[in-house]
Design goal:
It contains nine helices and ten strands. The chain is α/β, with parallel strands linked by helices and 253 residues long. Helix 3 crosses helix 4. It is globular, with a radius of gyration of 19 Å.
Length: 253
Protein backbone atom coordinates (compact mmCIF):
# COMPACT_ATOMS: atom_id res chain seq x y z
CA UNK A 1 0.00 0.00 0.00
CA UNK A 2 1.27 3.46 -0.92
CA UNK A 3 -0.12 6.92 -0.28
CA UNK A 4 -0.10 7.46 -4.04
CA UNK A 5 -2.93 4.95 -4.46
CA UNK A 6 -6.50 6.29 -4.36
CA UNK A 7 -8.63 5.70 -1.28
CA UNK A 8 -11.09 3.77 -3.44
CA UNK A 9 -10.57 2.26 -6.87
CA UNK A 10 -13.47 0.44 -8.54
CA UNK A 11 -12.96 -1.15 -11.96
CA UNK A 12 -15.75 -2.59 -14.13
CA UNK A 13 -17.79 -3.58 -11.07
CA UNK A 14 -20.94 -5.66 -11.64
CA UNK A 15 -23.53 -7.11 -9.29
CA UNK A 16 -26.22 -9.29 -10.81
CA UNK A 17 -29.36 -10.52 -9.04
CA UNK A 18 -31.02 -13.14 -11.21
CA UNK A 19 -31.22 -11.59 -14.67
CA UNK A 20 -30.99 -7.99 -13.38
CA UNK A 21 -27.70 -6.09 -13.08
CA UNK A 22 -28.07 -3.76 -10.10
CA UNK A 23 -24.55 -2.44 -10.79
CA UNK A 24 -23.32 -2.75 -14.34
CA UNK A 25 -19.70 -2.02 -15.32
CA UNK A 26 -19.06 0.71 -12.73
CA UNK A 27 -15.58 2.29 -12.61
CA UNK A 28 -14.41 5.30 -10.54
CA UNK A 29 -11.66 6.48 -8.20
CA UNK A 30 -11.84 8.44 -4.95
CA UNK A 31 -8.72 10.52 -4.14
CA UNK A 32 -7.25 10.28 -0.66
CA UNK A 33 -8.11 13.10 1.71
CA UNK A 34 -11.28 14.04 -0.17
CA UNK A 35 -14.98 14.36 0.64
CA UNK A 36 -16.64 12.34 -2.13
CA UNK A 37 -20.37 12.24 -2.88
CA UNK A 38 -21.91 9.18 -4.53
CA UNK A 39 -25.32 10.04 -5.95
CA UNK A 40 -28.15 8.50 -7.92
CA UNK A 41 -31.93 8.17 -8.01
CA UNK A 42 -33.74 5.44 -6.09
CA UNK A 43 -32.83 2.03 -7.49
CA UNK A 44 -29.72 3.33 -9.28
CA UNK A 45 -27.37 0.92 -7.46
CA UNK A 46 -25.92 3.18 -4.74
CA UNK A 47 -26.65 0.94 -1.77
CA UNK A 48 -25.59 -2.18 -3.68
CA UNK A 49 -22.28 -0.48 -4.52
CA UNK A 50 -21.59 0.62 -0.96
CA UNK A 51 -22.49 -2.86 0.33
CA UNK A 52 -19.83 -4.27 -1.99
CA UNK A 53 -17.32 -1.68 -0.76
CA UNK A 54 -18.17 -2.64 2.83
CA UNK A 55 -17.63 -6.32 2.04
CA UNK A 56 -21.28 -7.15 2.81
CA UNK A 57 -22.05 -8.28 -0.75
CA UNK A 58 -19.58 -10.01 -3.11
CA UNK A 59 -19.39 -8.54 -6.64
CA UNK A 60 -20.40 -10.70 -9.59
CA UNK A 61 -17.32 -9.41 -11.44
CA UNK A 62 -14.88 -6.52 -11.49
CA UNK A 63 -12.42 -5.38 -8.83
CA UNK A 64 -12.36 -3.20 -5.71
CA UNK A 65 -9.35 -1.69 -3.93
CA UNK A 66 -9.62 0.26 -0.69
CA UNK A 67 -6.53 2.16 0.49
CA UNK A 68 -4.48 0.25 -2.07
CA UNK A 69 -5.60 -3.17 -0.80
CA UNK A 70 -7.72 -5.56 -2.91
CA UNK A 71 -11.06 -6.91 -1.73
CA UNK A 72 -11.86 -9.56 -0.71
CA UNK A 73 -8.28 -10.89 -0.60
CA UNK A 74 -7.16 -8.49 2.13
CA UNK A 75 -10.51 -7.71 3.71
CA UNK A 76 -9.28 -8.07 7.29
CA UNK A 77 -6.53 -5.46 6.81
CA UNK A 78 -8.97 -3.15 5.04
CA UNK A 79 -11.61 -3.34 7.78
CA UNK A 80 -9.09 -2.20 10.40
CA UNK A 81 -8.71 1.07 8.49
CA UNK A 82 -12.32 1.75 7.49
CA UNK A 83 -15.17 3.31 9.47
CA UNK A 84 -18.69 2.27 8.45
CA UNK A 85 -22.01 4.06 8.85
CA UNK A 86 -24.57 1.86 7.04
CA UNK A 87 -28.04 3.02 6.05
CA UNK A 88 -29.60 0.61 8.53
CA UNK A 89 -28.10 1.34 11.94
CA UNK A 90 -28.20 -2.20 13.33
CA UNK A 91 -27.00 -1.61 16.87
CA UNK A 92 -27.15 -3.72 20.04
CA UNK A 93 -30.34 -2.36 21.59
CA UNK A 94 -29.77 -3.81 25.06
CA UNK A 95 -26.47 -1.98 25.60
CA UNK A 96 -25.92 1.62 26.57
CA UNK A 97 -24.18 3.91 24.10
CA UNK A 98 -20.94 3.67 26.08
CA UNK A 99 -21.10 -0.13 26.30
CA UNK A 100 -21.67 -0.46 22.56
CA UNK A 101 -18.85 1.90 21.61
CA UNK A 102 -16.49 0.09 23.99
CA UNK A 103 -17.58 -3.30 22.60
CA UNK A 104 -16.77 -2.24 19.02
CA UNK A 105 -13.42 -0.78 20.10
CA UNK A 106 -12.49 -4.07 21.73
CA UNK A 107 -13.53 -5.91 18.54
CA UNK A 108 -10.88 -3.84 16.76
CA UNK A 109 -8.34 -5.14 19.27
CA UNK A 110 -7.87 -1.83 21.05
CA UNK A 111 -6.60 -1.64 24.63
CA UNK A 112 -9.44 -1.56 27.19
CA UNK A 113 -8.30 1.65 28.89
CA UNK A 114 -7.87 3.43 25.55
CA UNK A 115 -11.30 2.29 24.40
CA UNK A 116 -12.96 3.61 27.56
CA UNK A 117 -11.17 6.93 27.25
CA UNK A 118 -12.13 7.37 23.59
CA UNK A 119 -15.72 6.22 24.21
CA UNK A 120 -16.10 8.85 26.92
CA UNK A 121 -14.76 11.56 24.57
CA UNK A 122 -17.00 10.44 21.71
CA UNK A 123 -20.13 10.37 23.85
CA UNK A 124 -19.39 13.92 24.98
CA UNK A 125 -18.58 15.05 21.43
CA UNK A 126 -21.85 13.68 20.07
CA UNK A 127 -23.80 14.99 23.09
CA UNK A 128 -24.88 11.50 24.16
CA UNK A 129 -23.52 11.61 27.71
CA UNK A 130 -26.44 13.26 29.49
CA UNK A 131 -28.18 9.94 30.26
CA UNK A 132 -25.40 7.36 30.58
CA UNK A 133 -27.74 4.51 31.68
CA UNK A 134 -30.13 4.92 28.74
CA UNK A 135 -30.25 1.86 26.47
CA UNK A 136 -29.83 2.18 22.71
CA UNK A 137 -33.34 0.67 22.33
CA UNK A 138 -34.64 3.94 23.81
CA UNK A 139 -32.65 6.16 21.44
CA UNK A 140 -34.29 8.21 18.70
CA UNK A 141 -33.25 7.56 15.09
CA UNK A 142 -31.02 10.64 15.19
CA UNK A 143 -29.31 9.44 18.38
CA UNK A 144 -28.75 6.03 16.79
CA UNK A 145 -27.06 7.72 13.83
CA UNK A 146 -24.80 9.62 16.22
CA UNK A 147 -23.81 6.38 17.97
CA UNK A 148 -23.12 4.75 14.60
CA UNK A 149 -20.83 7.63 13.66
CA UNK A 150 -19.10 7.52 17.05
CA UNK A 151 -18.43 3.80 16.50
CA UNK A 152 -17.03 4.57 13.04
CA UNK A 153 -14.53 6.99 14.63
CA UNK A 154 -13.34 4.85 17.57
CA UNK A 155 -10.34 3.27 15.78
CA UNK A 156 -9.26 6.44 13.89
CA UNK A 157 -9.89 5.06 10.37
CA UNK A 158 -8.37 6.45 7.19
CA UNK A 159 -11.55 5.92 5.16
CA UNK A 160 -15.24 6.36 6.01
CA UNK A 161 -18.05 4.67 4.05
CA UNK A 162 -21.36 6.37 4.86
CA UNK A 163 -24.78 5.49 3.49
CA UNK A 164 -27.33 8.25 4.24
CA UNK A 165 -25.67 9.27 7.55
CA UNK A 166 -27.91 12.33 8.05
CA UNK A 167 -31.25 10.58 7.52
CA UNK A 168 -33.52 11.13 10.53
CA UNK A 169 -31.06 13.52 12.20
CA UNK A 170 -32.31 16.94 13.32
CA UNK A 171 -30.66 20.18 12.17
CA UNK A 172 -28.51 20.55 15.29
CA UNK A 173 -27.30 16.95 15.16
CA UNK A 174 -26.65 17.16 11.40
CA UNK A 175 -24.57 20.32 11.85
CA UNK A 176 -22.53 18.65 14.57
CA UNK A 177 -21.94 15.57 12.42
CA UNK A 178 -20.96 17.66 9.39
CA UNK A 179 -18.42 19.63 11.44
CA UNK A 180 -16.90 16.40 12.75
CA UNK A 181 -16.63 14.90 9.27
CA UNK A 182 -15.07 18.04 7.81
CA UNK A 183 -12.48 17.96 10.59
CA UNK A 184 -11.68 14.33 9.72
CA UNK A 185 -11.01 15.36 6.10
CA UNK A 186 -8.80 18.23 7.27
CA UNK A 187 -6.78 15.63 9.18
CA UNK A 188 -6.31 13.57 6.01
CA UNK A 189 -9.17 11.05 6.14
CA UNK A 190 -11.33 10.22 3.12
CA UNK A 191 -15.13 10.24 3.26
CA UNK A 192 -17.34 8.40 0.76
CA UNK A 193 -20.92 9.58 1.25
CA UNK A 194 -24.28 8.72 -0.24
CA UNK A 195 -27.18 11.08 0.40
CA UNK A 196 -30.46 12.10 -1.17
CA UNK A 197 -30.05 15.60 0.30
CA UNK A 198 -28.22 17.27 -2.56
CA UNK A 199 -27.78 20.57 -0.74
CA UNK A 200 -25.70 18.75 1.89
CA UNK A 201 -23.58 17.06 -0.77
CA UNK A 202 -23.06 20.36 -2.59
CA UNK A 203 -21.83 22.06 0.59
CA UNK A 204 -19.60 19.25 1.80
CA UNK A 205 -18.19 17.34 -1.15
CA UNK A 206 -15.22 18.27 -3.31
CA UNK A 207 -15.95 15.61 -5.92
CA UNK A 208 -19.01 13.59 -6.92
CA UNK A 209 -20.02 10.59 -8.98
CA UNK A 210 -23.57 10.21 -10.28
CA UNK A 211 -24.94 6.83 -11.31
CA UNK A 212 -28.16 5.80 -13.04
CA UNK A 213 -29.40 2.27 -13.83
CA UNK A 214 -26.24 0.81 -12.31
CA UNK A 215 -23.82 2.76 -14.52
CA UNK A 216 -21.75 5.89 -14.14
CA UNK A 217 -23.06 9.03 -15.85
CA UNK A 218 -20.67 11.56 -14.30
CA UNK A 219 -17.54 11.74 -12.16
CA UNK A 220 -16.16 15.25 -11.66
CA UNK A 221 -15.06 17.95 -9.24
CA UNK A 222 -17.97 19.87 -7.73
CA UNK A 223 -16.89 23.10 -9.44
CA UNK A 224 -17.14 21.40 -12.83
CA UNK A 225 -20.54 19.89 -12.00
CA UNK A 226 -21.90 23.35 -11.27
CA UNK A 227 -20.79 24.44 -14.76
CA UNK A 228 -19.06 27.60 -13.61
CA UNK A 229 -21.85 28.65 -11.25
CA UNK A 230 -24.64 28.48 -13.85
CA UNK A 231 -26.12 25.26 -12.49
CA UNK A 232 -26.76 23.84 -9.02
CA UNK A 233 -25.96 20.23 -8.18
CA UNK A 234 -29.70 19.54 -8.19
CA UNK A 235 -30.01 20.99 -11.72
CA UNK A 236 -27.09 18.88 -12.94
CA UNK A 237 -28.44 15.77 -11.22
CA UNK A 238 -31.91 16.11 -12.77
CA UNK A 239 -30.40 16.76 -16.19
CA UNK A 240 -27.97 13.84 -16.04
CA UNK A 241 -30.33 11.15 -14.77
CA UNK A 242 -32.96 12.09 -17.35
CA UNK A 243 -35.69 13.19 -14.97
CA UNK A 244 -38.29 15.45 -16.51
CA UNK A 245 -39.44 18.64 -14.86
CA UNK A 246 -43.19 18.72 -14.48
CA UNK A 247 -45.43 21.70 -13.92
CA UNK A 248 -46.65 21.86 -10.34
CA UNK A 249 -50.28 21.74 -11.44
CA UNK A 250 -52.95 19.07 -11.18
CA UNK A 251 -55.77 18.73 -13.63
CA UNK A 252 -58.30 18.85 -10.83
CA UNK A 253 -56.65 21.72 -8.89
Amino acid sequence: MTDASPAIRVDNLRKVYGSKAAVDGLSFEVPRGSFFGFLGPNGAGKTTTIRMLMGAAPPSSGSIELLGLPLPARATEVKRQVGLVPDETLLFDHLTGAEYIEFVGRMYGMDRALVRSRAKELLALFELDAQPRKLIAEYSKGMRKRVAMAVALIHRPQLFLMDEPFEGVDAVGARLMKDILLEQVRQGATIFLTSHVLEVVERLCQRVAIISDGGLVLEADMADVRAGGNETLEDAFVRLVGAERRASQLEWF
